[in-house]
């Protein structure tokens, strides 16, 4: 059986609520509260749920931008600790793409230096190969390699997100954590960026964790969906199974809000071929080691919570 590239086990991230002059801890926001899932190579898991349910905190906890309160995260079978997170291979293997392409790029840096930065920081490749790698990355994301000396403000929103993706790909990661990567873009541009992500996944064999509040967008890209509510897992299933057979009332409510695609519409949201790159991976049943009292396993890959 294929080893999961990512294993998240009973992950909890709580933020203290501080009150009074002495800033005493009066309680905790349970932003992520016992999340467990495995991710096989080539899969895309979509994390969905309403605003504030903990989607971004989950991603940030996985990538190490926030220190989780408890639980374990394994990358390729290796448990991530404060010290192992400095390991070059781990830093290389897992990269994040942020929601806001306006805020996530340093406006004072040329895009050449923005994309080159991870190579410099991680000391990857020899210095004389950095420029050709930057050109290659720009081409990979559909941008002009002659534009390396331009600044972020000289690009459109969609192009800036492509720059963010090129930077995330600079050190050849295997796992991309995508936090609402198209939410800040116009719908027509969203389609182009989603198609790019799909093509890159196929061409480079990438694995994605994809966060969005937009279920229609998640449906295009994800092979499996995890529904979160107030930090807790509500339901998890293969994408089409979840859409066809949502079991938890909360999932049913979320799905009811997704507009049904109009077959006569001139332009569907995503054009071109979206190839399911994880067909092989999906042949396998992923395991979920959560207490039976909390989860009901209704099909090999369909779990629903019975306590929330
Ligand atoms: N640094 C922080 N300190 C305290 N509370 C926080 C912090 N970051 C997030 N939270 C709280 O944790 C909860 C989850 O927030 P998070 O941003 O992860 O949700 P989300 O599902 O990504 O929301 P959105 O879709 O609006 O981006 C929220 O109640 C939020 O207010």
TrEMBL record:
GO molecular function annotations of the record: ATP binding; ATP hydrolysis activity
Domain ABC transporter per the UniProt entry, residue ranges: 6-255
Gene3D superfamilies in UniProt: P-loop containing nucleotide triphosphate hydrolases
Protein origin, superkingdom: Bacteria
A GO BP entry: peptide transport
SMART domains associated with the record: AAA (SM00382)
InterPro entries for this protein: AAA+_ATPase (IPR003593), ABC_transp_ATP-bind (IPR050319), ABC_transporter-like_ATP-bd (IPR003439), ABC_transporter-like_CS (IPR017871), Oligopep_ABC_C (IPR013563), P-loop_NTPase (IPR027417)
Keywords: ATP-binding, Nucleotide-binding, Transport
Family statement: Belongs to the ABC transporter superfamily.
Name of protein: ABC transporter ATP-binding protein
UniProt organism field: Alicyclobacillus mengziensis
């Amino acid at each position: 059986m294929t080893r999961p590239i990512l294993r998240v086990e009973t992950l909890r991230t709580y933020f203290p609520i501080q009150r009074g002059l002495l800033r005493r801890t009066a309680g905790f926001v349970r932003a992520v509260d016992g999340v467990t899932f495995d991710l096989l190579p080539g899969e895309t898991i979509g994390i969905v749920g309403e605003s504030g349910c903990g989607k971004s905190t989950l991603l940030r906890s996985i990538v190490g931008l926030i220190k989780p309160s408890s639980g374990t995260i394994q990358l390729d079978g290796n448990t991530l600790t404060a010290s192992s997170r400095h390991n070059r291979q781990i830093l290389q293997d897992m990269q994040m793409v942020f929601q806001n392409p306006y805020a996530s790029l340093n406006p004072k840096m040329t895009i050449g230096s923005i994309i080159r930065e991870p190579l410099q920081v991680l000391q990857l490749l020899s210095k004389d190969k950095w420029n050709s790698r930057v050109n290659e990355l720009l081409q990979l994301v559909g941008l002009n390699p002659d534009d390396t000396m331009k600044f972020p403000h000289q690009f459109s929103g969609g192009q800036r997100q492509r720059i963010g993706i090129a930077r995330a790909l600079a050190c050849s990661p295997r796992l991309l954590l995508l936090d609402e990567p198209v939410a800040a873009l116009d719908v027509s541009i969203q389609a182009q960026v989603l198609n790019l992500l799909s093509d890159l996944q196929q061409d480079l064999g990438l694995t994605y964790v994809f966060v969005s509040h937009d279920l229609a967008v998640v449906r295009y890209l994800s092979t499996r969906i995890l529904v979160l509510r107030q930090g807790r897992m509500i339901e998890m299933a293969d994408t089409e199974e979840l859409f066809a057979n949502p079991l938890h009332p909360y999932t049913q409510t979320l799905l009811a809000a997704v507009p049904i695609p109009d077959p006569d519409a001139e332009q569907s949201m995503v054009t071109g071929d979206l190839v399911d790159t994880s067909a092989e991976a999906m042949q396998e049943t992923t395991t979920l080691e959560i207490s039976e009292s909390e989860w009901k396993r209704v099909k090999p890959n369909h779990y629903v919570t019975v306590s929330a």
